[in-house]
Amino acid sequence: MIEESGNKRKTMAEKRQLFIEMRAQNFDVIRLSTYRTACKLRFVQKRCNLHLVDIWNMIEAFRDNGLNTLDHTTEISVSRLETVISSIYYQLNKRLPSTHQISVEQSISLLLNFMIAAYDSEGRGKLTVFSVKAMLATMCGGKMLDKLRYVFSQMSDSNGLMIFSKFDQFLKEVLKLPTAVFEGPSFG
């Protein structure tokens, strides 16, 4: 019984680790909410090592894990999300020089916990494919034009025309990011 509560506390501490580190950075002293939010999201991006992954590697990971064939409304489990994230970081470490290797397990844990906090606030243990793609495409590194092209491809039909309901859904998904770093009222 005592061991179970110790494990539970450790798990909760791991889930909060990124947020504790973010609060320690004291970003809340920044007056303008847009700058404050940008600093917080950049901190998350760098702490999770997403700045090292470009959009092309994200797309490759989506394809490798079959997310490109799924409907946007399909829900995936947290364990499948962990598999996607794992493949992103293991592929990243293969591309990095041995002197610049990242801690894959720590990066997986931080990003997984952040995504769950941001997109599964109800605790259902499932996220939509569109949520996963929107968040990872937004938070990854790479050229802005490439990222925008990819995002547009996810919101457009086969004729290249934007589907406004998908654009609306994309905005809702992306606006969950400021909420996840406690800046929701500024952008709600």
Automatic annotation (TrEMBL):
InterPro entries: EF-hand-dom_pair (IPR011992), EF-hand_dom_typ1 (IPR015153), EF-hand_dom_typ2 (IPR015154), KCMF1/Dystrophin (IPR050774). One of its GO terms (biological process) is synaptic signaling. Pfam families: EF-hand_2, EF-hand_3. One of its GO terms (cellular component) is plasma membrane. Residues 17-140, 145-188 form the EF-hand domain. It comes from the Eukaryota. This is DTNB isoform 27. It comes from Pongo abelii (Sumatran orangutan).
